[in-house]
Design brief:
This protein is an alpha/beta fold. The protein starts with 7 loop residues before the first strand and ends in a 10-residue tail after the last helix. It has a six-stranded mixed beta sheet, sandwiched between helices. A four-stranded mixed beta sheet has the order 4-6-8-9. The longest helix is centred in the last third of the chain and has 17 residues. It has a single domain, classed as 2-enoyl-CoA Hydratase, Chain A, domain 1, CATH 3.90.226. The radius of gyration is 18 Å and the shape is globular. 47% of the residues lie in helices and 16% in strands. It contains eleven helices and ten strands. Strand 2, helix 1 and strand 3 form a beta-alpha-beta unit. The structure holds (2S)-sulfonatepropionyl-CoA. The site of (2S)-sulfonatepropionyl-CoA has 18 residues, from helix 4. (2S)-sulfonatepropionyl-CoA binds next to helix 4. One of its GO terms (biological process) is fatty acid beta-oxidation. Belongs to the enoyl-CoA hydratase/isomerase family. This is Methylmalonyl-CoA decarboxylase. Keywords: Lyase. GO terms for molecular function: lyase activity.
Length: 263
Amino acid sequence: METTFEQLEVAITGKIGVITLNNPSKHHALSTALIDEMCAALEEMLYRQVRVVILRAPAGSKVFSAGHDVRELPTNGRDPLTYDDPVRRVIRMIELFPAPVIAMVEGTVWGGACELVMSCDLIVAGDDSTFAVTPAKLGMPYNISGVQNFLNTGGMPLCKEMLFTAQPMGVQRLVDQGIVSHAVPRAELESLTRRMAEQIANNSPLVISLLKEELRLLSASHNLGPETFERVQAMRRLVYDSKDYQEGIKAFFEKRAPQFQGE
Ligand code: YXS
């Protein structure tokens, strides 16, 4: 393989590609550098015509990914989650990737990493994994396509509970909602994922690619008019211009609970 990766391990064996997050000192936070590498790895896999991609953290990880790299979030009144945000870029790439991407989750998943995992086609997880969707804890004006992604994966009540409480949720709740396909002891996770990947890889790649696109189009078919979109953008702007947003980021770095005033 020609591309070199520093924040990932990338392997292609036969028809199966594996991307392993590899920045443990920052708990695999989704920095621009890491996401750029993920996009490059997916490009390579597209070129090599892999039929399934497995996205994982190193075996035994305590944290699957800590989410957006908080150090890269702007605090100068600019929108922190624009269309070109790195996490959004890779999520679009996964959605459009013409073969299934399986998220194999070990450990805790935070913030933007939850959306990344949920944008994968299938999720299998260790039975001790947890998922925390954190914008309300960080004062973050989450964007409408991201919220739609959460909603598309699970039911409205669970989606609201995750978004409003921002607390880690045990994987079994997500299995019950059909968001996670299987939660198994960590020792069984890799063999289960491999088995599933091989079953997919042996099927017709053309049909799977067609089904994936059909499902994507059907699940994204909630059109918003320009006026509604602009109204939501105005609400988001109020959030990223707020003192609470500054407080959320400040509290993160000071390792304390944020004190939100609603202004
Ligand atoms: O102090 P050093 O330099 O060693 O760095 C520490 C942490 O600052 C760093 N780190 C991060 N750096 C950037 N972005 C992050 N998201 C991030 N998370 C961690 O990694 C080093 C080790 O972290 P430390 O000491 O806290 O480790 P720990 O084992 O005590 O705790 C592990 C975690 C995962 C429980 C803890 O690091 C944590 O709570 N991380 C933040 C999780 C989180 O709230 N993520 C959401 C990020 S914002 C986001 O994704 C969205 C935009 S949103 O929230 O809207 O969905």
